Amino acid sequence: MSASAVTEYQMVIGGQSVPASGGRTLDSVDPATGDTWARIPDATPEDVDRAVAAARSALRDPAWAGLTASARGRLLTDLAALVEEEADALARIETRDNGKLLRETSAQAHALGRWYRYFGGLADKIEGSVPPIDFPSVMNFTVREPVGVVAAIAPWNSPLLLATWKLAPALAAGNAVVAKPSEYTSASLIELAQLFERAGFPPGVLNVITGTGAGAGAALTGHPGIDHIAFTGGPESARAIGHAAADRLTPATYELGGKSANVVFEDAQLDAAEAGVLAGIFAASGQTCIAGSRLLVQRTIAEDFSARIVARTEAIRLGDPTAPDTQMGPAATAPQRERIAGAVERAVAGGATLAAGGRIPDDPALGRGLYYAPTVLTDVTPESEIAQTEVFGPVLAVIPFEDEADAVRIANATPYALAAGVWTRDVKRAHRMARALDAGTIWVNTYRAVSPLSPFGGSGLSGFGRENGMEAITAFTKTKSVWIELSEDVQDPFVLRV
């Protein structure tokens, strides 16, 4: 494809590729160059109606509803093989859409198959139970059934991975899905949907609509035909979705943001801690919910360790995200870069010291892209905005602490509770910190590791519910209790049997 070529994408509804009924499209811009490289449909509420109706129809279709759980699992396993075959192409599309390093999008794309295989294996292990009811003549058992039509809403920072965290368990449980990617990064999920068809999924089991959050997103989350909402994004959007869901009593799970603390003790292996801190905040240009955006470092080593981090930060190579020697790419969107710059400006105005970065690079080679220099702020107070609010960018706030108790107090003093890192050689301290830190994921002497086998999620402003692991299936099933009287006794019709 030439640099000037623009790819025209269509939505996937009921197994068909379709434009928006209103004919409107949205440009998808390559954040590394500023060029429009693709166009996506801007869905109308009528398009959402069609997608939900297609999913509802698939739920009743014997081609899907009549499959055994093992057969569903085999479809997911077949899909995994196709995803692995197309991983390189999917990665290139995602990098062009959101500007992440090709090394990272490639690693994620090649890992997607593990999620579909894992949940494919779980499909025929979604079991009920036989409670020992204390009525001698009654048998009671439970079954877990699909909730119905799931709205799966994925963000722009890792569209395929975070959509997969919803699609794989939802489909393993037998649901049908209407997926909506971010309007900034829709192409890779549309491409993924084509693989579902090739794997043999019946039409309507997965539908992909595209468009803005205020348009297609609001129509989807407020739709009466949706039985569960699975959302990854920011707290502001989650609140709006929560209001719409509450009006219809639609259950929802939310994987939101974080203000994660990376806690470095004086006894840590400092080379490993340094690498972990850099990975936590500058990988993916800091545009990740698990970003270790607060460096809590023990005061006895704070000056020296901070100097090491600043030196490494200033040496980070910004550039073309497809180049193998690039270490950090651009911000994904123009509004996001503005948000990052504004947060840094307010932090400095509030008394923080700019130790590195804090600017849009003046390199002419980066001029057309949405780059922002990796940034380190020192003299940050735990109560300041920069230490309390998610920036979602390459901005590290350095905060010293005295001892374990002080580290726990500072780390837990935000409204977020998604993730945290601990760096120490003391195994007892590691366990104490893992217990004391308020976060859904604790990494000890590592950072930014996820697996389909391990649950992921947070609380507070970081969301509700868990993705990945066996717990992920729970949100996508409902439990039915079945009572069977085995005797010929006739019940008193006016007395509750208790």
UniProtKB/TrEMBL annotation:
List the source organism.
Capillimicrobium parvum
Q: Name one GO molecular function term.
A: oxidoreductase activity, acting on the aldehyde or oxo group of donors, NAD or NADP as acceptor
Q: Does the keyword Transmembrane helix apply?
A: no
According to its UniProt record, what is one Pfam family this protein matches? Aldedh
Gene3D superfamilies listed in its UniProt record: Aldehyde Dehydrogenase, Chain A, domain 1, Aldehyde Dehydrogenase, Chain A, domain 2
Which CDD domains does the entry mention? Answer: ALDH_DhaS
Name the PANTHER family for this protein. Answer: ALDEHYDE DEHYDROGENASE-RELATED (PTHR11699)
So what EC number does this one have?
1.2.1.-
Q: What is this protein called?
A: (Z)-2-((N-methylformamido)methylene)-5-hydroxybutyrolactone dehydrogenase
Keywords attached to this Swiss-Prot or TrEMBL record, sorted alphabetically, are: Oxidoreductase
InterPro entries per record: Ald_DH/histidinol_DH (IPR016161), Ald_DH_C (IPR016163), Ald_DH_CS_CYS (IPR016160), Ald_DH_N (IPR016162), Aldehyde_DH_dom (IPR015590)
